Amino acid sequence: MTRLRLVSLNTWKGDGAYSRRLDAMSRELVALAPDVLFLQEALRAPDADHDTSARLAADLGHHCIHAETRAKPRWVEGKLLDSTSGVAILSRTPLEMVEIVDLPTSEADGGRCALTASLRHAGRVLDLACVHLSHLRGSEGADLRERQLSSVLSALDARDAARGASDARIVAGDLNALRTDAELRPLASDPAADWGGAEFLSRATRLAVHPGGVNVPGAIDHIVVRDPGGALRVRSRRLALNTGGIDPANGQPPSDHAAVVCDIAAAA
Question: Which of 71, 183, 217, 237 has the CB geometry, 3.0–4.6 Å to 145, for a possible disulfide?
Fold first, then answer.
């Protein structure tokens, strides 16, 4: 299998200097040249012609699928706009079997979904899931994230069952939890799941870029590659968009999350 570059990024809705941030995201993502880009908190505000995933897809020359969630008025560059904060998958090649998976929710969480699709690459089928799990803290949030993740994995299992075969899968996005947190155990305990190295997982992916922002000690944004046959492996993993893009003078990155960059290929 030839190399496939995966990138996941929480784009921070329309907060901050949205237009400048989006310009910086575009520049840096075009330079990264992802084959597949997973987006969370992708803003859509039609009255102001804001559409994060559509803009990035156009700049990258990618196909785009998008699922709108969490509809409400939001302040964007001084204007209160009706908007959604969705998940999206952008791909260099067309995506198949697109499905929106409604996730368990609560009134405090505000409603979420995952986006799943299949991608044909080098003669193989890869199942993709773009996920943004609940931000709620404490036991309520942990329980909700566990149930949400279970719904995503069940949807991917159903794809395998429909084909009568267990294909490779990629779960990517803002899971709002560390690999060691109990709610991610279904992924963390899977011997076929490749998370990348421990050094990467110790790095913070949530960035303090606004008043009150706090770095979370460790990765809460993940790309997890699972290939039951063991042929597909993570070849490299790093962070990007975590410094400088919007304002190099003070090091302000274009989002409050770093992008996770993951290159996968056939095992040696």
Answer: 183
Predicted structure pTM score: 0.95
Measure the CA–CA gap between 58 and 90, rounded to whole angstroms.
Answer: 10
Beta carbons of 7 and 261 less than 8 angstroms apart: yes
> CB neighbours (10 Å) of residue 106?
14
Looking at residue 26, its pLDDT comes to 97
Exposure letters 235-263 (e unless 16+ CB within 10 A, then b): bebebbbbeebbeeeeebbbbbbbbbbbb
CATH number at residue 170: 3.60.10.10
pLDDT digits (tens, 9 = 90+) for 36-68: 999 999 999 999 999 999 999 999 999 999 999
The answer to whether 252 and 201 have CB atoms below 8 angstroms apart is no
Judge contact between 127 and 168, C-beta under 8 A.
yes
The CA-atom distances, in angstroms, between 202 and each of 17, 46, 81, 187, 208 are 29, 38, 37, 17, 16
Q: What is the total count of domains within the chain?
A: 1
